[in-house]
Amino acid sequence: MWRRVSHQTRLIVALAVVVLLLRVVFIDLYRTLNEAFGLQFSDFLVRVVSDYPTFFVAFMLDLLFVRQLSRNISYGTQPVRRLLLICGYVVIISVVVAMVVNIGKIPFLDHKGDYYGEMLFSLLSALTINSLIVVVADVTLYYRQTRQELIAQINKKRKAQYQYSQLKRQLNPHFLFNSLNILDYIVKNGETERASAFIHKLAGTYRYLLSKEDDKLVTLGQELAFVEMYCDLLKERFTDGLVIEICIDESLYKTKIVPCGLQILVENATKHNIVSAEKPLTVRIFVLEHRIVVVNNLQPKLTQVDSTGLGLRNIGKQYLDIANLDIVIVKNEKEFRVELPILEL
Question: If 0-12 CB within 10 Å is exposed, 13-18 middle and 19+ buried, where does residue 286 land?
Fold first, then answer.
Protein backbone atom coordinates (compact mmCIF):
# COMPACT_ATOMS: atom_id res chain seq x y z
CA MET A 1 0.00 0.00 0.00
CA TRP A 2 2.73 2.50 1.03
CA ARG A 3 4.75 1.66 -2.09
CA ARG A 4 1.87 2.81 -4.31
CA VAL A 5 1.93 6.29 -2.78
CA SER A 6 3.84 8.90 -4.81
CA HIS A 7 7.21 10.27 -3.62
CA GLN A 8 5.68 13.73 -3.16
CA THR A 9 2.93 12.38 -0.92
CA ARG A 10 5.44 10.39 1.12
CA LEU A 11 7.58 13.49 1.60
CA ILE A 12 4.58 15.57 2.72
CA VAL A 13 3.54 12.92 5.24
CA ALA A 14 7.10 12.57 6.53
CA LEU A 15 7.47 16.34 6.93
CA ALA A 16 4.13 16.54 8.75
CA VAL A 17 5.26 13.82 11.16
CA VAL A 18 8.59 15.58 11.77
CA VAL A 19 6.88 18.94 12.40
CA LEU A 20 4.46 17.27 14.83
CA LEU A 21 7.34 15.61 16.70
CA LEU A 22 9.22 18.92 16.88
CA ARG A 23 6.13 20.60 18.25
CA VAL A 24 5.71 17.88 20.91
CA VAL A 25 9.41 17.86 21.86
CA PHE A 26 10.16 21.59 21.88
CA ILE A 27 6.86 22.95 23.15
CA ASP A 28 4.80 20.38 25.06
CA LEU A 29 7.75 18.50 26.54
CA TYR A 30 9.56 21.73 27.41
CA ARG A 31 6.54 23.07 29.28
CA THR A 32 6.15 19.81 31.17
CA LEU A 33 9.83 19.71 32.17
CA ASN A 34 9.83 23.37 33.10
CA GLU A 35 6.91 22.90 35.42
CA ALA A 36 8.31 19.68 36.93
CA PHE A 37 11.91 20.79 37.51
CA GLY A 38 11.80 24.61 37.29
CA LEU A 39 14.77 24.65 34.89
CA GLN A 40 15.43 27.17 32.08
CA PHE A 41 16.08 25.97 28.54
CA SER A 42 18.46 28.86 27.77
CA ASP A 43 20.79 27.85 30.62
CA PHE A 44 21.33 24.44 29.06
CA LEU A 45 21.91 25.91 25.60
CA VAL A 46 24.77 27.89 27.10
CA ARG A 47 26.01 24.80 28.96
CA VAL A 48 26.18 22.71 25.76
CA VAL A 49 27.86 25.44 23.73
CA SER A 50 30.28 26.23 26.56
CA ASP A 51 31.59 22.67 26.56
CA TYR A 52 33.97 23.59 23.72
CA PRO A 53 35.58 20.17 23.03
CA THR A 54 32.22 18.41 22.87
CA PHE A 55 30.62 21.20 20.82
CA PHE A 56 33.54 21.25 18.36
CA VAL A 57 33.50 17.46 17.85
CA ALA A 58 29.70 17.47 17.40
CA PHE A 59 29.97 20.38 14.94
CA MET A 60 32.58 18.57 12.80
CA LEU A 61 30.57 15.33 12.91
CA ASP A 62 27.46 17.24 11.74
CA LEU A 63 29.36 18.67 8.74
CA LEU A 64 30.87 15.27 7.92
CA PHE A 65 27.44 13.62 8.11
CA VAL A 66 25.87 16.16 5.73
CA ARG A 67 28.74 15.78 3.29
CA GLN A 68 28.55 11.98 3.28
CA LEU A 69 24.77 12.07 3.02
CA SER A 70 24.89 14.33 -0.05
CA ARG A 71 27.38 11.94 -1.69
CA ASN A 72 25.30 8.82 -1.05
CA ILE A 73 21.82 10.30 -1.57
CA SER A 74 21.76 13.19 -4.02
CA TYR A 75 19.24 16.01 -3.59
CA GLY A 76 15.86 15.25 -5.13
CA THR A 77 16.21 11.47 -4.83
CA GLN A 78 14.76 9.39 -1.96
CA PRO A 79 13.59 12.46 0.04
CA VAL A 80 11.82 10.41 2.74
CA ARG A 81 14.86 8.22 3.38
CA ARG A 82 17.05 11.30 3.47
CA LEU A 83 14.76 13.01 5.99
CA LEU A 84 14.62 9.92 8.23
CA LEU A 85 18.41 9.56 8.18
CA ILE A 86 18.83 13.21 9.18
CA CYS A 87 16.34 12.87 12.04
CA GLY A 88 17.91 9.63 13.24
CA TYR A 89 21.41 11.07 13.16
CA VAL A 90 20.40 14.25 15.00
CA VAL A 91 18.74 12.24 17.77
CA ILE A 92 21.72 9.90 18.20
CA ILE A 93 24.39 12.64 18.20
CA SER A 94 22.26 14.75 20.58
CA VAL A 95 21.91 11.87 23.05
CA VAL A 96 25.69 11.39 22.98
CA VAL A 97 26.32 15.12 23.49
CA ALA A 98 23.85 15.27 26.41
CA MET A 99 25.53 12.29 28.09
CA VAL A 100 29.03 13.76 27.62
CA VAL A 101 27.97 17.17 28.96
CA ASN A 102 26.54 15.53 32.10
CA ILE A 103 29.12 12.77 32.44
CA GLY A 104 30.49 14.13 35.69
CA LYS A 105 27.13 14.31 37.44
CA ILE A 106 26.50 10.93 39.09
CA PRO A 107 22.89 10.65 40.20
CA PHE A 108 22.68 10.08 43.92
CA LEU A 109 19.56 8.38 45.19
CA ASP A 110 18.08 11.56 46.61
CA HIS A 111 18.87 13.66 43.54
CA LYS A 112 17.75 11.41 40.71
CA GLY A 113 14.96 13.80 39.78
CA ASP A 114 17.38 16.72 39.31
CA TYR A 115 19.78 14.57 37.30
CA TYR A 116 17.14 13.28 34.88
CA GLY A 117 15.72 16.76 34.50
CA GLU A 118 19.13 18.15 33.60
CA MET A 119 19.72 15.27 31.20
CA LEU A 120 16.44 15.93 29.40
CA PHE A 121 17.10 19.68 29.16
CA SER A 122 20.60 18.97 27.92
CA LEU A 123 19.13 16.63 25.31
CA LEU A 124 16.67 19.31 24.16
CA SER A 125 19.51 21.80 23.90
CA ALA A 126 21.68 19.38 21.94
CA LEU A 127 18.76 18.57 19.64
CA THR A 128 18.24 22.26 18.95
CA ILE A 129 21.90 23.02 18.25
CA ASN A 130 22.58 19.94 16.09
CA SER A 131 19.36 20.41 14.15
CA LEU A 132 20.34 23.98 13.30
CA ILE A 133 23.87 22.98 12.30
CA VAL A 134 22.68 20.10 10.09
CA VAL A 135 19.92 22.15 8.42
CA VAL A 136 22.18 25.16 7.72
CA ALA A 137 24.99 22.90 6.43
CA ASP A 138 22.57 20.93 4.25
CA VAL A 139 20.97 24.06 2.77
CA THR A 140 24.39 25.64 2.15
CA LEU A 141 25.72 22.52 0.44
CA TYR A 142 22.55 22.24 -1.64
CA TYR A 143 22.92 25.87 -2.74
CA ARG A 144 26.58 25.35 -3.69
CA GLN A 145 25.89 22.16 -5.63
CA THR A 146 22.92 23.72 -7.39
CA ARG A 147 24.99 26.76 -8.33
CA GLN A 148 27.83 24.58 -9.63
CA GLU A 149 25.39 22.50 -11.66
CA LEU A 150 23.84 25.68 -13.06
CA ILE A 151 27.25 27.04 -14.06
CA ALA A 152 28.14 23.68 -15.63
CA GLN A 153 24.90 23.73 -17.62
CA ILE A 154 25.54 27.31 -18.76
CA ASN A 155 29.09 26.41 -19.85
CA LYS A 156 27.79 23.29 -21.60
CA LYS A 157 25.22 25.40 -23.43
CA ARG A 158 27.86 27.95 -24.42
CA LYS A 159 30.12 25.21 -25.73
CA ALA A 160 27.25 23.69 -27.70
CA GLN A 161 26.39 27.10 -29.18
CA TYR A 162 30.02 27.73 -30.09
CA GLN A 163 30.43 24.28 -31.69
CA TYR A 164 27.18 24.75 -33.59
CA SER A 165 28.38 28.14 -34.82
CA GLN A 166 31.67 26.56 -35.90
CA LEU A 167 29.80 23.80 -37.72
CA LYS A 168 27.70 26.36 -39.58
CA ARG A 169 30.84 28.20 -40.62
CA GLN A 170 32.46 24.96 -41.73
CA LEU A 171 29.47 24.16 -43.90
CA ASN A 172 28.71 27.76 -44.88
CA PRO A 173 26.98 27.24 -48.25
CA HIS A 174 27.57 30.82 -49.42
CA PHE A 175 31.32 30.67 -48.92
CA LEU A 176 31.57 27.25 -50.56
CA PHE A 177 29.26 28.29 -53.43
CA ASN A 178 31.29 31.45 -54.13
CA SER A 179 34.56 29.51 -53.95
CA LEU A 180 33.30 26.90 -56.44
CA ASN A 181 32.11 29.64 -58.81
CA ILE A 182 35.55 31.27 -58.66
CA LEU A 183 37.21 27.89 -59.24
CA ASP A 184 34.94 27.28 -62.23
CA TYR A 185 35.89 30.67 -63.69
CA ILE A 186 39.61 29.98 -63.24
CA VAL A 187 39.34 26.53 -64.82
CA LYS A 188 37.41 27.88 -67.82
CA ASN A 189 40.16 30.43 -68.37
CA GLY A 190 42.64 27.57 -68.53
CA GLU A 191 44.70 28.81 -65.56
CA THR A 192 45.59 25.37 -64.27
CA GLU A 193 48.31 26.44 -61.85
CA ARG A 194 46.09 29.13 -60.36
CA ALA A 195 43.23 26.61 -60.08
CA SER A 196 45.50 24.08 -58.37
CA ALA A 197 46.69 26.67 -55.86
CA PHE A 198 43.10 27.72 -55.20
CA ILE A 199 42.03 24.09 -54.57
CA HIS A 200 44.92 23.53 -52.14
CA LYS A 201 44.05 26.68 -50.19
CA LEU A 202 40.36 25.78 -50.08
CA ALA A 203 41.19 22.28 -48.87
CA GLY A 204 43.65 23.69 -46.31
CA THR A 205 40.98 26.05 -44.99
CA TYR A 206 38.46 23.27 -44.41
CA ARG A 207 41.16 20.95 -43.05
CA TYR A 208 42.03 23.56 -40.40
CA LEU A 209 38.38 24.05 -39.46
CA LEU A 210 37.82 20.32 -39.04
CA SER A 211 41.06 19.69 -37.15
CA LYS A 212 40.50 22.53 -34.65
CA GLU A 213 36.81 22.07 -33.93
CA ASP A 214 37.49 20.50 -30.50
CA ASP A 215 40.37 22.82 -29.50
CA LYS A 216 39.67 25.63 -27.07
CA LEU A 217 42.85 27.46 -28.02
CA VAL A 218 45.31 27.50 -30.94
CA THR A 219 48.65 29.21 -31.39
CA LEU A 220 48.64 32.64 -32.94
CA GLY A 221 50.95 31.32 -35.66
CA GLN A 222 48.43 28.60 -36.63
CA GLU A 223 45.55 31.06 -36.71
CA LEU A 224 47.49 33.56 -38.82
CA ALA A 225 48.45 30.88 -41.35
CA PHE A 226 44.77 29.90 -41.59
CA VAL A 227 43.65 33.53 -41.96
CA GLU A 228 46.20 34.13 -44.73
CA MET A 229 44.79 31.14 -46.69
CA TYR A 230 41.26 32.38 -46.08
CA CYS A 231 42.18 35.91 -47.23
CA ASP A 232 43.83 34.54 -50.37
CA LEU A 233 40.53 32.86 -51.24
CA LEU A 234 38.65 36.10 -50.60
CA LYS A 235 41.07 38.03 -52.83
CA GLU A 236 40.27 35.69 -55.71
CA ARG A 237 36.69 36.88 -55.37
CA PHE A 238 37.23 40.56 -54.59
CA THR A 239 40.51 41.02 -56.58
CA ASP A 240 41.63 44.62 -56.05
CA GLY A 241 38.82 45.52 -53.67
CA LEU A 242 40.27 43.83 -50.55
CA VAL A 243 43.47 44.85 -48.80
CA ILE A 244 44.74 42.72 -45.89
CA GLU A 245 47.60 44.09 -43.79
CA ILE A 246 49.07 41.75 -41.17
CA CYS A 247 51.84 43.15 -39.00
CA ILE A 248 52.69 40.79 -36.11
CA ASP A 249 56.10 39.88 -34.75
CA GLU A 250 56.98 36.18 -35.04
CA SER A 251 58.01 36.14 -31.38
CA LEU A 252 54.27 36.08 -30.54
CA TYR A 253 53.43 33.12 -32.76
CA LYS A 254 53.50 30.64 -29.86
CA THR A 255 50.97 32.59 -27.77
CA LYS A 256 47.35 31.46 -27.78
CA ILE A 257 44.02 32.75 -29.05
CA VAL A 258 40.61 31.15 -29.65
CA PRO A 259 40.33 29.27 -32.96
CA CYS A 260 38.65 31.02 -35.90
CA GLY A 261 38.51 34.31 -33.97
CA LEU A 262 40.45 36.29 -36.58
CA GLN A 263 38.70 34.56 -39.49
CA ILE A 264 35.27 35.55 -38.11
CA LEU A 265 36.34 39.18 -37.85
CA VAL A 266 37.67 39.25 -41.43
CA GLU A 267 34.51 37.50 -42.66
CA ASN A 268 32.30 40.04 -40.85
CA ALA A 269 34.23 42.92 -42.41
CA THR A 270 33.62 41.64 -45.96
CA LYS A 271 30.03 40.70 -45.15
CA HIS A 272 28.88 44.12 -43.93
CA ASN A 273 30.99 46.53 -46.00
CA ILE A 274 31.37 47.51 -49.66
CA VAL A 275 34.35 45.75 -51.25
CA SER A 276 35.27 47.14 -54.66
CA ALA A 277 38.21 48.54 -56.61
CA GLU A 278 36.64 52.02 -56.32
CA LYS A 279 36.11 51.67 -52.56
CA PRO A 280 38.69 49.18 -51.26
CA LEU A 281 38.10 47.58 -47.90
CA THR A 282 41.23 47.55 -45.77
CA VAL A 283 41.55 45.09 -42.90
CA ARG A 284 44.53 45.59 -40.60
CA ILE A 285 45.68 42.98 -38.08
CA PHE A 286 48.31 44.00 -35.53
CA VAL A 287 49.25 43.74 -31.83
CA LEU A 288 48.77 46.51 -29.31
CA GLU A 289 49.42 46.13 -25.55
CA HIS A 290 49.22 42.34 -25.64
CA ARG A 291 45.99 42.36 -27.61
CA ILE A 292 45.57 41.40 -31.22
CA VAL A 293 43.63 44.14 -33.01
CA VAL A 294 41.51 43.69 -36.13
CA VAL A 295 40.30 46.98 -37.62
CA ASN A 296 38.62 47.83 -40.91
CA ASN A 297 37.43 51.04 -42.51
CA LEU A 298 33.66 51.44 -42.27
CA GLN A 299 31.76 51.64 -45.55
CA PRO A 300 28.41 49.91 -45.00
CA LYS A 301 26.62 48.25 -47.89
CA LEU A 302 23.62 50.09 -49.29
CA THR A 303 21.52 47.00 -48.61
CA GLN A 304 22.29 46.01 -45.06
CA VAL A 305 22.91 42.34 -44.35
CA ASP A 306 20.99 40.89 -41.40
CA SER A 307 23.36 40.37 -38.49
CA THR A 308 22.71 38.32 -35.36
CA GLY A 309 26.07 39.16 -33.79
CA LEU A 310 26.45 35.47 -32.98
CA GLY A 311 30.07 35.31 -34.10
CA LEU A 312 31.26 38.15 -31.85
CA ARG A 313 29.20 36.88 -28.92
CA ASN A 314 30.71 33.41 -29.23
CA ILE A 315 34.24 34.80 -29.35
CA GLY A 316 33.51 36.86 -26.23
CA LYS A 317 32.04 33.86 -24.41
CA GLN A 318 35.07 31.72 -25.22
CA TYR A 319 37.45 34.28 -23.71
CA LEU A 320 35.23 34.60 -20.62
CA ASP A 321 35.04 30.84 -20.13
CA ILE A 322 38.73 30.16 -20.72
CA ALA A 323 40.49 33.18 -19.20
CA ASN A 324 37.77 35.39 -17.68
CA LEU A 325 38.77 38.18 -20.07
CA ASP A 326 36.62 40.45 -22.20
CA ILE A 327 37.07 41.38 -25.83
CA VAL A 328 36.94 45.06 -26.79
CA ILE A 329 34.62 46.31 -29.55
CA VAL A 330 34.85 49.91 -30.75
CA LYS A 331 32.77 51.40 -33.57
CA ASN A 332 32.80 54.98 -34.83
CA GLU A 333 31.98 56.79 -38.05
CA LYS A 334 35.24 55.76 -39.76
CA GLU A 335 36.17 52.28 -38.55
CA PHE A 336 35.16 49.10 -36.76
CA ARG A 337 37.69 47.70 -34.31
CA VAL A 338 37.86 44.51 -32.25
CA GLU A 339 40.61 43.65 -29.76
CA LEU A 340 41.19 40.03 -28.69
CA PRO A 341 43.37 39.17 -25.65
CA ILE A 342 46.52 37.17 -26.39
CA LEU A 343 46.88 34.30 -23.91
CA GLU A 344 49.99 32.58 -22.61
CA LEU A 345 48.60 29.33 -21.21
Answer: middle
CATH number of 217-341: 3.30.565.10
Alpha-carbon span 268 to 331, nearest angstrom = 13
Asked if 111 and 67 touch (Cβ cutoff 8 Å), the reply is no
pLDDT in tens, 50-83: 777 887 888 898 889 888 888 887 766 777 777 7
Burial 96-123 (b: 16+ CB within 10 A, else e): bbbebbbeeeeeeeeeeeeeebbbbbbb
What is the pLDDT at residue 25? 58
Tell me if residue 286 falls in helix, strand or coil.
Answer: strand
Q: For residue 184, what pLDDT is reported? A: 83
CB 284 within 8 A of CB 242: no
Look up the pTM and report it.
0.54
Report pLDDT digits (tens) over 214-238. 778 889 999 999 899 888 888 888 8
Q: How far apart are CA 127 and CA 97, in angstroms?
A: 9
Q: Determine the length of the chain.
A: 345
Residue ranges covered by each domain of the chain: 2-160, 217-341
